[in-house]
UniProtKB/TrEMBL annotation:
<keyword id="KW-0521">NADP</keyword>
<dbReference type="GO" id="GO:0003942">
    <property type="term" value="F:N-acetyl-gamma-glutamyl-phosphate reductase activity"/>
</dbReference>
<dbReference type="InterPro" id="IPR000534">
    <property type="entry name" value="Semialdehyde_DH_NAD-bd"/>
</dbReference>
<comment type="similarity">
    <text>Belongs to the NAGSA dehydrogenase family. Type 2 subfamily.</text>
</comment>
<keyword id="KW-0055">Arginine biosynthesis</keyword>
<protein>
    <recommendedName>
        <fullName>N-acetyl-gamma-glutamyl-phosphate reductase</fullName>
        <ecNumber>1.2.1.38</ecNumber>
    </recommendedName>
</protein>
<dbReference type="InterPro" id="IPR010136">
    <property type="entry name" value="AGPR_type-2"/>
</dbReference>
<keyword id="KW-0560">Oxidoreductase</keyword>
<keyword id="KW-0028">Amino-acid biosynthesis</keyword>
<comment type="function">
    <text>Catalyzes the NADPH-dependent reduction of N-acetyl-5-glutamyl phosphate to yield N-acetyl-L-glutamate 5-semialdehyde.</text>
</comment>
<dbReference type="Pfam" id="PF01118">
    <property type="entry name" value="Semialdhyde_dh"/>
</dbReference>
<comment type="pathway">
    <text>Amino-acid biosynthesis; L-arginine biosynthesis; N(2)-acetyl-L-ornithine from L-glutamate: step 3/4.</text>
</comment>
<dbReference type="InterPro" id="IPR058924">
    <property type="entry name" value="AGPR_dimerisation_dom"/>
</dbReference>
<dbReference type="InterPro" id="IPR050085">
    <property type="entry name" value="AGPR"/>
</dbReference>
<feature type="domain" description="Semialdehyde dehydrogenase NAD-binding">
    <location>
        <begin position="4"/>
        <end position="105"/>
    </location>
</feature>
<feature type="active site">
    <location>
        <position position="116"/>
    </location>
</feature>
<dbReference type="Pfam" id="PF22698">
    <property type="entry name" value="Semialdhyde_dhC_1"/>
</dbReference>
Length: 315
C-alpha cells in the first residue's frame, strides 16, 4: 500500500522541493488540495487527517495551526518550520546526531525538521559537547553564508526582480541584533549554557551554504590538536550515508584553499571540515540549505519513520 502524503504549503520553496523529490517514487501517493482551498482551514484539516504523513512547509503560525488541526492519532507530522524545534513533545529530526535521535525519529508521530543554519552549527558543536571537548559554557561564535533561497518565496522574488538594488549583488550580513530564529535550537540541542553568537550572511546565488565555528584550543577542556578533533568528528559520523567528515585541513577537497558554498547544491549531503593549527581550529559544515537544510532532511526523516532505506529518493 502506498503512503499517503499531504504537503501543507506545497506552493512554497520547501514544499515544492519535497513535491519534486517525490516525482520518481511509486511508494508514495501525494494528496493534492484544491488550488483555491490551499489556505482553507477546513479543507487542510480534512487532508491532514486523511494522510499517513503530513509535511508542514508553512510560516510558523500556520504550522502551529496545522498541527492543532490534526485529530487523527495515526497521522505523523514532519514540520519544516521553526515552530516546534525546541518543543519537548516533538523529536528533533537530525538522525546523525546519535542512535537515540534516529530511534526517536523512527518511532515519532511529530518530527521537527532542523533549521538550515542550525543543521550546520549542530553538526559541528553537538559531537564536541557530547565528547566533553567543548565546555558547556564555551562562548561559541558562528559565521555562515547562505544562498538566497533560504529566505523563501519573498526573498527569491526580491533577488530575482528587475528592481534588485546594488546592495543585493553583494553578500549581506544580517540578524545583527543576535536574535536569529535558529539560536534557540542551536543552544538547546547542543546543550550549551549560553546562546551562541550567530552571524549569517546571505549572498547572490540560489542555494548552498557553509556554516563555520572557530575554536580557541586553550579554552577547550584540555589541549586538543586539529588531529584530535578530526578523529573525534570522524568517529562520531562513521558509517553515515549523508554526513561525511572530510580529510584533515581539507587538503584534497579544497586544494586552492577556498571553500565554496554551492558545491553540494541539489544533494542531501553534508561535508564536515576540520582545519587550523594547534592554537586555533576552524570547523566548517557545507551542504544545501534546501537539501540537508530543508526538504532533503525532511524526506530522509520520512524514510526513517517508514522503516525504509533513508536514502530512498535522495540520490
Ligand atoms: N527556504 C529554506 O531554505 C528553508 C525554509 N524552512 C522553513 O520551511 C517553512 C516554509 O519555508 P519556505 O518554503 O522557504 O517558505 P515560502 O514562503 O517559500 O512558502 C511558504 C508557503 O506557505 C504558504 N502558506 C502561508 N500561509 C499559509 C496558510 N495559512 N495555509 C496554507 N498555506 C500557507 C504560502 O502561500 P503563498 O504561496 O500564497 O505565499 C507559501 O506557498 C518555513 O517555516 C521556513 O522557515 C526550513 C528550512 C530551510
Ligand atoms: C537566507 C535566509 O534568509 N535564511 C533564513 C533561514 C532559512 C531557514 O532555514 O529557516 P527555518 O528556520 O525555517 O529553517 C533566515 O535567516 O531566516
Amino acid at each position: 500500500m502506498k503512503t499517503r502524503v499531504f504537503i501543507d504549503g506545497k506552493e512554497g520553496t520547501t514544499g515544492l522541493q519535497i513535491y519534486e523529490r517525490f516525482q520518481n517514487r511509486n511508494d508514495v501517493e501525494i494528496m493534492l488540495i484544491d488550488e483555491e482551498k490551499r489556505k482553507d482551514v477546513n479543507e487542510r484539516a480534512k487532508m491532514i487527517n486523511s494522510s499517513d504523513i503530513t509535511f508542514l512547509c508553512l510560516p510558523d503560525a500556520a504550522a502551529i495551526e496545522a498541527a492543532s488541526l490534526c485529530t487523527n492519532p495515526d497521522v505523523r507530522i514532519i514540520d519544516a518550520s521553526t515552530a516546534h524545534r525546541t518543543n519537548p513533545a516533538w523529536d528533533y529530526g537530525f538522525p546523525e546526531l546519535s542512535e537515540k535521535h534516529r530511534e526517536n525519529i523512527r518511532n515519532s508521530k511529530r518530527v521537527a525538521n532542523p533549521g538550515c543554519y542550525a543543521s550546520g552549527f549542530i553538526s559541528l558543536v553537538y559531537p564536541l559537547v557530547k565528547a566533553g571537548v567543548l565546555p558547556e559554557d564555551y562562548p561559541v561564535t558562528c559565521h555562515a553564508v547562505s544562498g538566497y533561497s533560504g529566505g523563501g518565496k519573498k526573498m527569491i522574488a526580491a533577488m530575482e526582480s528587475e528592481n534588485k538594488t546594488k546592495e543585493m549583488y553583494s553578500p549581506r550580513q544580517y540578524a545583527l541584533g543576535q536574535k536569529h530564529k535558529h539560536i534557540p535550537e542551536m543552544q538547546a540541542v547542543c546543550g550549551l549554557k549560553y546562546k551562541p553568537m550567530f552571524n549569517p550572511i546571505v549572498d547572490d546565488y540560489y542555494n548552498g551554504m557553509v556554516v563555520s565555528v572557530p575554536l580557541v584550543t586553550r579554552c577547550l577542556t584540555k589541549k586538543y590538536t586539529p588531529e584530535n578533533i578530526h578523529e573525534i568528528m570522524a568517529e562520531h559520523y562513521v558509517g553515515q550515508h549523508f554526513v561525511k567528515v572530510m580529510e584533515l585541513g581539507g587538503t584534497e577537497t579544497l586544494p586552492d584553499g577556498f571553500i565554496a558554498a554551492n558545491t553540494l547544491a541539489g544533494t542531501n549531503n553534508m561535508q564536515i571540515f576540520v582545519c587550523g593549527n594547534e592554537d586555533q581550529i576552524l570547523l566548517m559544515s557545507r551542504f544545501d540549505n534546501l537539501g540537508k537544510g530543508a526538504s532533503g532532511a525532511a524526506i530522509q526523516n520520512m524514510n526513517i519513520m517508514l522503516g525504509i532505506n533513508e536514502a530512498t529518493g535522495l540520490e
